Amino acid sequence: MPFTRYAAFLSAAALALGAPLHAQTSEGTQVTQPTSPPTAEKRDHSYSHHGITIADPYHWLKDQSYPTVDDEDVLEHLKAENAWFEARMEPHQPLVDELFGEMKARIKEDDSTVPQRRGDWLYWSEFEEGAEYRKYYRKPVAGGDPVLILDENELAKDVEYFRLGAFSVSQNGRYLAYSADTNGSERFTARIKDLQTGELLPDEIPGTLSGLVWVKNDTALVYGTADDNWRVHDATMHVLGTPVSEDVELYRETQDEGFRVGSGLSAQEDWLIVSTGDNETSEVRLVPADDPTAEPILVKPRTKGVEYDVDVRDGTLWVHTNDDHVNFRLATASLETPGEWTTLIAGSDEFYLTDFDLFKDFYVTEGRLRGLDQIQLRSYADPALVKPVAFAEASFSAGLDNNPEYDQDKLRISYESMVTPDSVYDYHVASGELELLKQQEIPSGYDADLYTTERVEIAARDGTMIPVSVVMRKDRPQTGPLHLYAYGAYGYAVPPGFSTTRLSLIDRGFAYAIAHIRGGDDLGRKWYLQGKLNERTNTFNDFVDVAKGLVAKGYTEKGRISISGGSAGGELMGVVANTDPDLWGAVVAHVPFVDVLNTMLDADLPLTPVEWPEWGNPIESKQAFAYILSYSPYDQVVAQDYPPMLVTAGLNDPRVTYWEPAKWVAKLRELKTDDNELLLKTNMGAGHGGKSGRFQSIRETAEEVAFILWQMDMTE
């Protein structure tokens, strides 16, 4: 997946806001709280394209020295909005604390992952009680004591924000390469640890934005760096013990500015796979993993609209591509003629082939059938022999988990549903037995029999049937409140998964619904294509029509619906708040992509060129300009009543820049004709995903739920 506005908010469980601001300074001095919301100054600014002139009086909120944000006027305005957020939320702090307490009580604090074998070692991670971050361990398969190999808590102790990026153990098990972001800017610094001695090597690679791939018999790493616009255009090799200045560039993307480069190893770890592409086109090269500077093999030159990814087994190339069917096919080829592909599994209108994995004695295909996840084991000898992994529930989310070894006689699988907590299985290939290894524990208690989940279909205005996943208590009154969530972009299908934080709404009488709207690929690749570019408004219409359909079916009532979405899903929130404001009882927009036209007109912004295939290029196309203008939430704010709204931003966010929500809120404050709450909170030390740390994140969720309950008159 290219680096896009694809966000941390894509999970159906995502209900995250920024951590609460307090009414005291760090020295305990009381701060005078504001009594009215801030008003952003209007400054004359306009721009013209294709003979159309647009006024943009809040353009000044974009700091012209970005990515440095040091304009005092900008910072003071953001601080004033934060102070207003604090003042309005302060009376509801007891509710936030109550929600935080119950959400935290559902978390097993001293939790750990299921150990998994790689080579001579078993690897796993643990949370200690009260800890914000993980510790990573391993122990010999042959027996022995656990060894701590990385402690996120230690790495995070002196920083406000911490996020672990890549985590890669060398094939011989001696070295650990990892990367970390300490300010939310999504620029990671890579380090290497000798696991035999416990020492950190002096090698330090700044500015990475990629995986870390071991090559050259574990003497070198392949990585990619973020340029000034957070674009990875390179695959570069660092040899251990040498200066970074001497690193060797293996590949650089020079043809297409919007393409991104990524690297990985083949199933047998004998080939380095270097891929480049954007949201609709790809191109792949292969080089021997033990000789990465050798002449690369180009699998097939890029063709606009053709996506493909590859793997290699015993000298045969395997290709997953949409070249002759929108739902992809699986093909093979020889390394001598890598561009001549012979179909192994043909594309299908019914089955959406999303991925494949090669193992020694079998291979696995993953996909979706009628929107439900499928895992299928297949024989190399007999392509017609298909062994599906069966699950009992009617709606669920399932997929291959961590399976790091090529020679496997059992597969690690993850599974959950809207009523079944996250579960880890081993699937025994010979017998077909699913062995439950672990199910998410909920210390405060959870009785699945109290809840019910449904999958319904609702007709959109063009007649298309939109699937909706719903979970609620069995004793919920009919037409009670309902929370509706969706994303609807980049071909991401929101899984009908489990969430402990969601229970704080459901146990208070809410139904929780996920709208599987077009723009995601829930029902196949066409489902995605029907929600992008010139069909983008299908996404917004689907969401509104689902809400109206749920009202018509008696799930809830008009005005009793709270909604949330983040990033591109925040764009969705902005559009539907403009078009159908009276439907919503509360709107939460996380880091919302709402200044769409301005962003797509600015080729110097980090993500804009790679985004044109998704949204259109309004610089070159008058039609794209007019179409984006017709729905861009910031541009379509009008003088009307709006529902209560909570909006978040991250000052260091490279995906949705902080000024998008800031400008949007400023314009809403100017034009809206109601007295409903409008709050903006900017995390001044974080990025796209809000605060880091598991408990900080939960407190953010508690704030959001408190806002929804407050606005829906359900605080008693």
Report helical residue fraction: 10-25%
In CATH, the architecture of one domain is: 3-Layer(aba) Sandwich
Structural class by SSE content: alpha+beta
Catalogue the unreliable spans.
1-30
CATH H level, superfamily name of one domain: Alpha/Beta hydrolase fold, catalytic domain
Global geometry: globular
Q: The CATH topology of one domain, please?
A: Rossmann fold
What is the C-alpha radius of gyration, as a whole number of Å? 25 Å
Biggest sheet statistics: 8 strands, mixed
Total of helices:
12
CATH C-level label of one domain: Alpha Beta
Please indicate the percent range of residues in DSSP E strands (runs of 2 or more): 25-35%
First-last Cα distance: 44 Å
Widest β-sheet, arrangement of strands: 31-32-34-33-35-36-37-38
Residue-averaged pLDDT, rounded?
92
In total, how many beta strands? 38
Describe the structure.
GO terms for molecular function: serine-type endopeptidase activity. Residues 24-46 are annotated as: Disordered. Residues 24-34 have a biased composition (Polar residues). Pfam families: Peptidase_S9, Peptidase_S9_N. With 716 residues, the protein is an alpha+beta fold. Among the domains are: 38-108 and 564-715, Rossmann fold, CATH 3.40.50.1820; 112-158, no CATH class; 447-557, Rossmann fold, CATH 3.40.50. Helices cover 18% and strands 31% of the residues. The strands form 9 sheets. The protein has an 8-stranded mixed beta sheet with strand order 31-32-34-33-35-36-37-38, sandwiched between helices. A hairpin with a 6-residue loop joins strand 5 (135-140) and strand 6. Helix 2 crosses helix 12 (694-711). The chain is globular. The model is unreliable at 1-30 (pLDDT under 50).
